[in-house]
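Model: Ready when you are.
Researcher: Fold this.
Model:
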Amino acid sequence: MKNKKCILVSACLLGENCKYNGGNNYNQAVIDFVADKDVLAVCPEVAGRLPVPREPVEILKGRPCDVNGNFYDKEFQVGIDHTLSSLAEKNIDLAILQSRSPSCGVNQIYDGHFSSRKIEGSGLLGKFVAQRSTNLVKKIF
């Protein structure tokens, strides 16, 4: 049913251990904010069948690439397609996405050279969500 409003949230912010290093980005303010709301928690990287833990990935010239130079276009596309399929069934009116992530990043991502340098840009899902004009929480609480 598509009538009820829903919030799209990066699963790592809700405490799911889906980060590349096996950890999460648990954020109590996000938990409190969504406590009484319908939530769609997503991790496109896990949905794309990438393991946890896994090598870190950054966006290099628009493509997801790990520190060893391996590209993960197919896995990221599978994960994003899965997420988009889930989105089609929901009435998403807000997205709270993890900053700097190669999939969920909003406004800022790493530079693609594993230098810890951040640049302006979005992850692959973050870019799609922004283009869809869903309201994004640009900074985490």
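Researcher: Now this one.
Model:
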Amino acid sequence: GDIVEELKNEVQNHGYDVTIIGGSGKRRMSHDLTQYINSSIFVVNNYKPNQNYRLLLAVDNSDGTKKAVKYGVRIAQALDIEVDIITVSKTDEFKDDYMKAADWASKFLRRTNINHKKIFLNGNPSELISREAGDNHIIVMSSSNRNPLKTFFQGNKPLKVLENSQCPILIVK
């Protein structure tokens, strides 16, 4: 049968929190899973067991940011890695809610004793997150709450980051 449909049913029937898949060259399955499965998706692109990874935690004013931060903390603790909090503004100014989200994430990481730094960049979020990640980060970001029809035609930030990244990425739902 169709693997996406089978995984979708498996997630619904058993209540899985995260679906882990290998990165595929064409990324079509990753796109489909991200859009149609109700669990978070961890796409293991180019994972190197001996690599010294950092966690790149994408933070903005979206509803899912706090959940992504909490997942990021669990991963950072489990792998004993440091975190880079990245916040990207499309304009030259950072909105108040972007700054508050980054400050909240920093405070949350500090309370859990995770070493971290904050990165603020201006420009295209998808491109800058992918570029900053390089090949030595694990990206953690929230899923998009964009209309599915708009996503079909225009994509969304997590899908664009997935397309452009050369490292593992967790899209938190």
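Researcher: Key takeaway?
Model: The CA atoms of residues 128 and 166 lie 13 Å apart.
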